[in-house]
Amino acid sequence: MDIATGASTISKSAVSRDDWKLVVNSWQQAINLLKQVPASSPQHAIAQKKLPQYQRFLGEAKEKAAPLMKKTTQGDINPQFFSIPIKGRRGGTPIIEVTFNGLRTFEMLFDTGANVTLIPQQIAYSLQLKPQGFTQVTVADGAAIVVSKTTLKSLEIDGRIKKNMSVVVAPPAMEEGLLGQDFYEGYDVSIKENIIEFRKH
């Protein structure tokens, strides 16, 4: 039970897949010890009750520690689980890092109210993205504005890759991009203190 408590403590601050491997090892060690409790022990009933609980936690940890899929696939990559550290917050909104076209990493705001992904003009310029028409979007203050749209070769966070993704380019007054629901559609989102976790429905 002490080992299980340690596993639970580590899991609360785990971010990387290596962190989760430590959690996996701890849960596995705790499970192995539970299985060694003999039927003659007064603790046997407690061990048997704890066993399925620990095995469930082990399964969840294994999911988060799973290696990334290879990027050679032509289509989108949709892992069962992925996560992203929160680098900071602006007005309570998390700031995260997103990789564009497999090459450049930029900071973005993670706003669950954003339906589409919006990138600032400086990112569009640095990636040499060409405008591909215009569309109308509603911004935070409720105003409807006309913005240009373009296509990214790929957008990536921790093994979740969406290819040939259509995004809108923000007006000059907006200096930060927003990661929209169109990137993580099909995932349940859990925003914690230092990390955002995404798990497939």
Structural class by SSE content: alpha+beta
| Helical segment count | 5
> Could you tell me the number of beta strands?
11
Order of helices and strands: HHHEEEEEHEEEEHEE
What average pLDDT do the residues reach? 87
**Computed Rg:** 21 Å
**Percent of residues in beta strands:** 25-35%
**Can you tell me the overall shape?**
elongated
Q: Uncertain runs with pLDDT below 50, 5 residues or more? A: none
In whole angstroms, how far apart are the ends? 31 Å
Helix fraction bin:
25-40%
Q: What's the story with the biggest beta sheet?
A: 8 strands, mixed
How would you describe this structure in keywords?
31% helix, 8-stranded mixed β-sheet, alpha+beta, 3-stranded antiparallel β-sheet, 201 residues
Task: Describe this structure as you would to a colleague.
The chain has 201 residues and is α+β, with helices and mostly antiparallel strands. Helices cover 31% and strands 34% of the residues. The chain has 5 helices and 11 strands, in the order αααβββββαββββαββ. Strands 2, 3, 4, 5, 6, 7, 8 and 9 form an 8-stranded mixed beta sheet that branches. The protein has a 3-stranded antiparallel beta sheet with strand order 1-11-10, with no helix packed on it. Helix 1 (2-13) packs antiparallel against helix 2 and helix 2 runs antiparallel to helix 3. It is elongated and about 75 Å long. The two termini are 31 Å apart. The model has no long low-confidence stretch (mean pLDDT 87).
